[in-house]
Design goal:
The complex is a heterotrimer of chains A (about 325), B (about 300) and C (about 550). Helix content of chain A is about 75%, strand content about 0%. Chain A is an all-alpha fold and about 325 residues long. The radius of gyration of chain A is 24 Å and the shape is globular. The N and C termini of chain A lie close together (about 10 Å). The interface between A and C is large, with 53 and 57 residues.
Chain lengths: ~325, ~300, ~550
């Protein structure tokens, strides 16, 4: 088992290396002149040259790359030029915010999409089927930032049901003591129901925005995979043995249809984690996405590199977990490496 | 496997039969019919758009700014008094262009290299898979942002960035499909007739994979437009004053709270219809191509 | 205390507090709310030290509120009833009194002032801080230089509570320049403790920590998310502020910022599109204060070093082709003073900004363009800073359309904020839309930066003229000598020349607008265009 895991990890190494190299090059091609940016409004060319030397930007690219890789090897992602803080600590502090938002969004989406997919498969070709398809597709048809702004307008501005879109907690609450970084979990650990409620309230609208966007792939895959299973022989046998349709669908069919759905979930999760940059901007969410955007616009290399690398590693890890899950759900599948 | 064999038999089906099947599917599935109608509408707007708009989409009129929809301005006017209906129609060509060109590019890059990977295997396969894996490991939207930020925010670069982030999807699908067919009977037959491998790839494998690729293409066309819209939101979209749905939605979004809903709503609606139509068409095409894989 | 123990104790505390304490907590929250100001802006500081490398505008706000200066400005009430700083009235801050002689100025520091960590503030700290400002290079050093504050030898700590500034030349801007943000007083002992050999001025430390003795202490800063301040209850350099806490949140979406204000969740914001300010002003729910930005002008700049804009006729043609009024209406929503269309026979004022006499006159523009040898126009690019797209984008679209009518075809080029300065510095952009405002509200100060042949970055047109330089220098000399008549003549001279040769076309003097809840009082306009929390109160 362990050997298999290691083997599987080894195959991911080239793509991580690829990510490191491509990100490095891409950030250096960015047109922003970091030195001029930091030299301030009244800088002279000489002052800029001084700053460039101070930041090490006057050295040849291979040398800069070597320095970067050396830092990486020691787990140091460098410091953000604009805020002066270590990228590693910033990412560790911000990742839970993004992960919490994405996970809750995914759970909301699953709660709707999976039943939708099952119903659509069972009633294949009916009005219900078409309606499910329309609903799911509609969700993916609007730019995610637009959905977000629209939801804020309706639920916060017009109706006043949602709290102010001011990040993870109302300003007059203080964050629960940090254990996992997930406010929902941390506030429960601290048995602070008030904070729990406040954090949950802040989460609903942004999570809904994410959820709507991920409805389509999950519903589609559930439907497809259910259809395949429903037409297989063991289902026919189960039906013939007089089991209730409910038992057949939930216990027999769905369990067997789960495998491709989980693969999709994994992909959707990693996709969402990257795509939530826009949602974070709309909701002033202090996650890693908004951090990366700001850095990219300021041509601040280190945070962009750190962000992309973190995402790449998470992607690799996620795929590994999915592969392992396969084995648990379906003993016939064993990872081959 | 039966389905594969059906679509797989090389020129087995005449185009006439396919058309008849398509008509059957559209008749059977009203949603695809609707989608097809929208698609026709979009294409007409893209072709005739600039000729039929009631106003010049670029002309400002500061005496009539921020007007609500009326008989004079069907979709209202924006901050500079430009007619939103004219802008929405005029934008169709550019948005469809972004969608079509990015899809064509990614098909050429990802589709062909995927087919080659699946057909030849060996080092070609390894290289293509590695590239696809590397791109997949990126947060895709951020990669697109990075590419556009680095190369400059022109339409061409938006097309390129969109094509690059879709590369893995195409490469994987094409590879899987080609892989299945590389030892198929008709390929063997072609080989026995003395055809070279490259010729087989292009004349036998490629045409047979096209249907599946078409499905893929119509699905990604929608994402291409959404991607362009997202880039506009963070300021990396096309240059003003070019009308483009994404940038119009992004700019109009700031006016929602103050009540000028129409500025973002109509381009948003157009964008939604387009993406919606591409997605449903993709599903419909899948039904046409492969009745077994109806999802 | 280890984590487990900590968790246990907080859990017990929470458990104990919930049943009995809940109403108390709620009223305490209401109380806290009344003494807390919630500020929302688009972006936050990147550095909390004004002496730092590349500190952005929000960073100035932290510096202004967390550090003291020798003196500050008094207030005046403007015609519309709003409050503003008074350029000509100085009031004590760290210095109780001062004496300005012909060759130096001596400041008596208050004896009870302390830094946030409790160390007394002495003249040595002041000297060290000023030495730092003139030595670190970059923006702070440049700003000090604008007031002829250039060398550490100019700053003398006479004794613990007496500080002297020696003048290297007569300059009317020296004293005003001591009242801007840059000459702030840092806790020298604390910063030195955190300095390293590579970083002798401790810039890395002050980048993230405030080390001052100002009215507010920064207690938390999460970049891109929030800044939290608490009042310094031991502050002696002025009346104790009414606010106990200030929470400053970054909200990137403009629509959301307006929603937060209208729903009453946020207290105050500078960062709204003009359209929203205009609408909120017309309504009654939100108080909007609008003050013209002192010495600030939005303009179209042309690169005079390169054809076709090296030809003065072309520049004048462009000046006649700008849709001025459209810009005032559709872009600024009236929130600005027009800088165009002065009657031709009116003559010049001794003031800056003041309107020029160009107007939208396409026929005249076409004729001038033909005279210049471009009867069919030409092609060029019009660039702007994406960071200010709310104003710039519609403005550039209007300018583009209007220039198109006289045959000048323009492509609009959006440049991300991070690259804007670098592009300006290259001085290669042919045509730009930009904004500049000078902290020190004096005409010669503006011209020294924007029109002088030293070709500073703000001279975005690369305009160089010996005559112009002579006029600017003469005005500075006259100001230093107190020769009013000569000063007025020189100022009119350079303003007239700037209008005749139009390397840059002034469009408007924008208003600095701020929207706040009706319960917020005491807002004051400052030359630095940031919030001063000290005077603000919530009813």
């Amino acid at each position: 088992m362990l050997r298999q895991v290691l083997k599987r990890l080894a195959t991911a190494i080239p793509s991580v290396i690829g990510v490191v190299v491509v990100t490095f090059l891409l950030t250096r091609v960015l047109p922003g002149d970091t030195a001029a940016y930091f030299a301030g409004p009244a800088a002279t060319p000489q002052a800029i040259a001084e700053i460039r030397a101070k930041l090490g930007l006057d050295r040849p690219l291979p040398e800069q790359f070597a320095a970067y890789v050396k830092d990486l090897a020691t787990g140091n992602l460098g410091n953000s030029l604009s805020t002066g803080r270590a990228v590693t600590t910033e990412i560790i502090a911000r990742l839970p915010a993004s992960a919490e938002l994405t996970l809750v969004g995914l759970l909301l989406s699953m709660a709707v999409a999976i039943p939708l997919g099952i119903v659509a498969a069972v009633k294949q070709g009916s009005i219900v089927d078409h309606a499910c398809r329309m609903v799911a597709t509609a969700g993916v048809s609007l730019p995610v930032f637009f959905t977000g702004l629209l939801l804020v307008y309706v639920f916060y501005f017009l109706l006043g049901w949602a709290p102010a879109p001011l990040g993870r907690l109302d300003v007059f609450y203080s964050a629960p003591p940090d254990v996992t970084g997930f406010y929902l979990i941390d506030s429960l650990i601290a048995r602070d129901l008030d904070t729990f409620r406040a954090a949950a309230a802040q989460l609903v609208v942004p999570a809904l925005t994410m959820g709507i966007f991920s409805l389509a792939p999950i519903a589609r895959m559930t439907r497809a995979s259910m259809l395949a299973v429903l037409s297989s022989e063991f289902i026919r046998t189960a039906r013939a043995s007089g089991l209730t349709p409910r038992t057949v669908i939930i216990t027999y069919a769905f369990r067997n249809a789960l495998l491709p759905v989980i693969t999709t979930l994994g992909m959707v999760f990693s996709f969402l984690l990257g795509a939530n940059v826009l949602v974070e901007k709309v909701f002033a969410w202090p996650g890693i996405g908004s951090y990366a955007i700001e850095a990219l616009i300021a041509s601040d290399y280190a945070p962009v590199q750190g962000f992309v690398l973190t995402m790449a590693i998470m992607y690799v890890a996620l795929n590994l977990v999915i592969d392992l899950l396969y084995g648990v759900i379906d003993p016939r599948v064993r990872i081959e490496g | 496997m039966t389905a594969r064999a059906q679509t797989g038999a090389p020129p087995a089906r005449s185009s006439f039969a396919l058309l008849r099947h398509a008509r059957y599917v559209i008749g059977e599935n009203p949603v695809t019919g609707i989608a097809f109608a929208i698609f026709v509408l979009l294409v007409v707007a893209a072709l005739l758009g600039p000729l039929v708009t009631p106003y010049d989409p670029l002309a400002s009129d500061t005496s009539a700014t921020l007007r609500a929809p009326s008989a004079k301005h069907w979709f209202g006017t924006d901050q500079l008094g430009r007619d939103i209906f004219s802008r929405v129609v005029a934008a169709t060509r550019l948005d469809l262009g972004i969608a079509i060109f990015s899809v064509a590019l990614v098909f050429a890059l990802g589709g062909l290299s995927g087919i080659a990977a699946g057909f030849f295997g060996g080092w070609v396969d390894r290289v293509v898979c590695r590239i696809a894996d590397t791109i997949m490991a990126f947060p895709l939207f951020v990669l697109a942002m990075g590419i556009v930020a680095a190369l400059g925010n022109t339409v061409t670069n938006i097309v390129i960035a969109t094509a690059i982030i879709n590369f893995p999807l195409y490469a994987r699908v094409a590879r899987a499909e080609a892989n299945v067919r590389r030892e198929a009977g008709f390929v063997m037959a072609a080989r026995l007739c003395g055809n070279g491998e490259l010729r087989i790839l292009l004349t036998q494998i490629l045409p047979n994979i096209m249907p599946i690729m078409m499905v893929q293409m119509s699905l990604t066309m929608g994402y291409a437009i959404l991607n362009a819209a997202g880039l506009s939101f963070i300021g990396l979209g096309v240059r003003p004053p070019t009308p483009e749905w994404g940038i119009m939605v992004a700019e109009g979004a700031a006016f929602i709270v103050s009540g000028e809903w129409w500025i973002a709503f109509f381009p948003g609606l157009a964008l939604m219809l387009a993406v919606f139509c591409f997605n449903l068409l993709g599903d419909g095409l899948r039904d046409i191509v492969d009745p077994q894989r109806r999802t | 205390m280890d984590r487990r123990q900590f968790l246990k104790s907080t859990a017990i505390a929470a458990g104990a507090a919930t049943p009995i304490g809940a109403p108390f907590v709620r009223s305490a929250a209401a109380q806290a709310r009344a003494e807390t100001l919630l500020v929302v802006t688009e972006s936050g500081p990147n550095n909390v030290d004004i002496h730092g490398v590349g500190t952005n505008r929000p960073g100035y706000e932290v510096s202004w509120n967390c550090y003291d200066r020798l003196f500050t400005h008094g207030k005046k009430t403007l015609a519309d009833g709003s409050e503003s700083y008074d350029r000509d009235k100085y009031e004590p801050e760290l210095a109780e009194s001062w004496d300005i002689g012909p060759n130096s100025a001596t400041f008596k520091l208050r004896k009870d002032a302390k830094f946030h960590d409790g160390t007394p503030i002495t003249a040595k700290d002041v000297k060290w801080s000023f030495d730092r400002a003139v030595s670190v290079g970059g923006f702070p050093t440049f700003q000090m230089k604008a007031g002829s504050l250039e060398k550490p030898e100019q700053f003398v700590a006479v004794d613990d509570h007496t500080f002297r500034v020696d003048f290297i030349r007569k300059d009317a801007l020296t004293i005003p320049d001591l009242g801007v943000i840059v000459p702030c007083v840092l806790n020298a002992g604390l910063v030195k403790k955190n300095a390293t050999e590579k970083d002798p001025w401790g810039l890395d430390y002050t980048k993230q920590n405030t080390a001052g003795g100002g009215a507010f202490k920064m207690v938390k800063w999460t970049p891109g998310t929030e800044v939290v301040y608490e009042r310094n209850d031991d502050w002696k350099s002025g009346p104790l502020p009414k606010l106990k806490r200030v929470i400053w949140r970054m909200v990137p979406s403009a629509g959301n910022r307006r929603a937060l204000l209208e729903r009453g969740d946020a207290d105050i914001s500078f960062d709204l599109p003009n359209k929203d300010f205009a609408e909120l002003k017309a309504g009654s729910k939100i108080k909007v204060v609008a003050n013209p930005v002192g010495n600030g002008i939005g303009y179209i700049g042309m690169n005079v070093k390169k054809p076709p804009f090296d030809n003065v006729k072309v520049r004048q043609a462009v000046a006649y082709a700008i849709p001025y009024q459209k810009i005032m209406d559709a872009v600024l929503f009236g929130l600005g003073k027009p800088m165009f269309g002065a009657p031709a026979d009116k003559g010049l004022d001794v003031a800056w900004p003041q309107p020029h006499s160009y107007n939208t006159d396409l026929a005249k523009a076409k004729a001038l363009l033909a005279e210049a040898g471009y009867p069919n126009g030409f092609e060029t690019t019009l660039s702007f800073d994406l960071g200010f797209a709310v104003i710039n984008e519609p403005l550039c679209v209007l300018v583009q359309e209007s220039l198109g009518q006289i045959g000048i075809k323009t492509t609009i080029n959006k440049i991300p904020g991070a690259n804007w300065r670098a592009e300006l510095l290259k001085k290669e952009l042919p045509l730009i839309s930009n904004f500049f405002s000078g902290w020190l509200d004096y005409p010669e100060y503006f011209f020294f930066w924007c029109y002088h042949g030293q070709n500073a970055v703000f001279n975005t047109m690369s305009y160089q003229s010996k005559e112009m330089d002579a006029l600017i220098e003469a005005a500075r000399t006259a100001a230093a000598a107190g020769d009013k008549a000569a000063y007025e003549k020189e100022v009119k001279g350079f303003v007239g020349k700037a209008f005749a040769e139009v390397p840059r076309i002034p469009l408007f003097q924008p208003y600095l607008c701020v929207a706040m809840q009706p319960s917020v009082t005491g807002y004051r306009y400052w030359f630095h265009r940031q919030l001063d929390y000290r005077t603000i109160a919530k009813a």
